Amino acid sequence: MDILDLTGIDLSKEAPECEPERQFYFIAKARELLHEKEREAGRKLTFCVTTFGCQMNARDSEKLTGILEQIGYVEEENEEKADFVVFNTCTVRENANQRVYGRLGQLKRIKKKNPHMLIALCGCMMQEPEVVEKLKQSYRFVDLIFGTHNIFKFAELTVVCLESGRMVIDIWKDTDKIVENLPSERKFPFKSGVNIMFGCNNFCSYCIVPYVRGRERSRTPEAIIAEIEKLVADGVVEVMLLGQNVNSYGKTLDTPITFAQLLKRIEQIEGLQRIRFMTSHPKDLSDELIEVMAHSKKICRHLHLPVQSGSSRILQKMNRRYTKEQYLALVEKLKIAIPDISLTTDIIVGFPGETEEDFADTLDIVRKVRFDSAFTFIYSKRTGTPAAVMKEQVPEETVKKRFDRLLTEVQEIAKEVCSIHKGTVQTVLVESVNEQDPSLMTGRLSNNLLVHFPASSSVIGQLKEVKLTECKGFYYIGELV
Ligand code: SAH
Ligand code: SF4
Ligand code: F3S
């Protein structure tokens, strides 16, 4: 397949210049092209968007889905049966990349048999030049490659792809642009992620996100509130405000506003019942935010506060800009102001130079904070980050042993912390039918724990009072009251 590199090229003179109007023009155009393809195929054509990575990517995938549905593609859950497969990729750890290459290999075989099939790759992995180079060399059956900064151009790029029949590539290095009001299709009718900011300026020394997501940009409070009001009018009762570091929201806006002030304004939205947010960087968590959380009726009793390591020495090498003592003091303050708060975290094991003593500090902080749950990761070397070239990378065997020790500790504590709610009555948002037992519904507590209880599926999307009768380690069995 020929390659069409679009980076920096304006495609159509007749298309409107401003966004999102331009994309609506291309959605209409793609619809015509799709009709033609459907006539050839003698059937409706389908799509499947597969998401790797974090909630930001999940939200981006809802936008991709919205655009594809507007074009007229029909959703198909099995990617091997779909005519338009989109992989929205993640590159935060090496194994995320390996999964994408593995799945692509499988698709190659299927594409040979389906002449209508298109494969698009987007997301964080595509922002790495080595990845795009590899795809150009060894994955020539891919039709469309674009990045994180121009995801809003998906309709336009789809048109080029359908018209040219070539491999289309469009990757931007960075952007200061935020395109509002594109279509989006929610996974759940009753809850939704809402981006409040994009990018990250923190440059933690192990992390690739600032390189692939670009500089921090906040949406205006007006745009955020308008979006939430629209969601609420459409049946949403819970929003998850999304950003790599929500605590630094608003600092770069023309009229600066703090995250805490934004939360207060969102709290006023009538009909909205629950507010969640992630992720919070400990260094920017303000007293004002704790105060707002403590007094809020809608903000959930849950804070995801990634600690990454318990060793001040390692934290410094990670460029996290807080010490073990500062983190512990912050947790203390939070627990006093909001006694029922649930704290969860992320921890990396095996950062370059981590000694047994550093690791003991991580175990110690886990024991002192007593997290409700923790995501534990083995350090993964990301090309281009400062940590990748640090000497003293820890041997794999050592890391693996530490990882297992940490996991045991984290899980034992989480079980104990989880069990303290036994016998209480709590409000849950009913989210889905239980996968194993369809007579049970699954709901989420304010503190993010799940509870399974007998009920009919008609209560999905509603807030209900449930008695937590039995603790099963990391979740509850309950009954409606
Ligand atoms: N912005 C969020 C985190 C986004 S990435 C924050 O700062 O909290 C999610 C998690 O992936 C991080 O918290 C970190 O624990 C983990 N992570 C990031 N880079 C990693 C790497 N190179 N190796 C292993 N884990 C990593
Ligand atoms: Fe990565 Fe640090 Fe930014 Fe989080 S705050 S995305 S860990 S650089
Ligand atoms: Fe992965 Fe990108 Fe999120 S690298 S974790 S999908 S911001």
Automatic annotation (TrEMBL):
Cofactor note: Binds 2 [4Fe-4S] clusters. One cluster is coordinated with 3 cysteines and an exchangeable S-adenosyl-L-methionine.
Catalysed conversion reaction: N(6)-dimethylallyladenosine(37) in tRNA + (sulfur carrier)-SH + AH2 + 2 S-adenosyl-L-methionine = 2-methylsulfanyl-N(6)-dimethylallyladenosine(37) in tRNA + (sulfur carrier)-H + 5'-deoxyadenosine + L-methionine + A + S-adenosyl-L-homocysteine + 2 H(+)
Cofactor: [4Fe-4S] cluster
Gene: miaB
Chain ranges of the TRAM domain: 419-481
Subunit structure: Monomer.
Subcellular location: Cytoplasm
General function of this protein: Catalyzes the methylthiolation of N6-(dimethylallyl)adenosine (i(6)A), leading to the formation of 2-methylthio-N6-(dimethylallyl)adenosine (ms(2)i(6)A) at position 37 in tRNAs that read codons beginning with uridine.
Protein name: tRNA-2-methylthio-N(6)-dimethylallyladenosine synthase
Organism of this sequence: Faecalicatena acetigenes
